[in-house]
Amino acid sequence: MKLRTTLFTFAAVVSSSALLAQEPVVGRADESMFTDTDPVLHRNKQTTLHIMRELLQCGQWDRAGEWLTEAYHQHNPNAESGLQGVVYFFTQVMKQPRVANCDKLTTEITAVMAEDDLVTVLWPRSYKDPRNPGRCYTTTWFDTWRFVDGKADEHWDPATIAPPPSPERCEQ
């Protein structure tokens, strides 16, 4: 009897979780988040800004050597390690177009944190809700870089082997 009550309670909680509302993840395109009073952290945050703006936003991968080391250790399962590996991934696999005029970050950022030789950027992502057709939900994506002499040398993110679990992005 106790097991039946526990299972019923668990089923009720799980089925009602769709009724619970989440706080939406929000961000803003604000380059001032990439600053710091500590000169080393400031340099690393500024390099991160260039990675976010010139590389990830504008596809200027011909400039990647300005901000990434030759070794660039990649922990994303879809891209190879090394400068050439990550450039190949974005230019040949993802076919990211190059945008010449890239003077302002337009990607919405939730937070930028720096400590020691690491910088982490949090930003919102929206997906279609598989439980509620026509509705979207937000979640938080992150990218973390480890820096050596002012260049990103190692990278982590929550990517999974393509296609991701929720492949349908939601445009808002």
What does this structure look like?
This protein has 172 residues and is α+β, with helices and mostly antiparallel strands. The protein has a single domain (24-156), classed as Nuclear Transport Factor 2, Chain: A (Roll). 26% of the residues lie in helices and 24% in strands. A five-stranded mixed sheet has the order 1-5-4-3-2, with helices on one face. Strand 2 (111-115) and strand 3 form a beta hairpin. It is globular and about 55 Å long. The N and C termini lie far apart (48 Å). Residues 10-19 have low confidence and may be disordered.
Topology:
Blueprint: H1 2-16, H2 39-57, E1 68-74, H3 83-93, E2 111-115, E3 118-128, E4 136-148, E5 151-156
Parallel strand pairs: 1-5
Antiparallel strand pairs: 2-3, 3-4, 4-5
Quick rundown:
This protein has 172 residues and is α+β, with helices and mostly antiparallel strands. 26% of the residues lie in helices and 24% in strands.
Helix content: 25-40%
Question: What number of domains?
Answer: 1
The main sheet orders its strands as 1-5-4-3-2
| DSSP E strands, number | 5
> What is the N-to-C order of secondary-structure elements (H for helix, E for strand)?
HHEHEEEE
The main sheet comes to:
5 strands, mixed
Poorly predicted segments: 10-19
Number of helices: 3
The CATH topology comes to Nuclear Transport Factor 2, Chain: A
Which structural class matches the secondary elements? alpha+beta
- Rg to the nearest angstrom? 19 Å
Range of strand content: 15-25%
Q: Give the C-level CATH assignment.
A: Alpha Beta
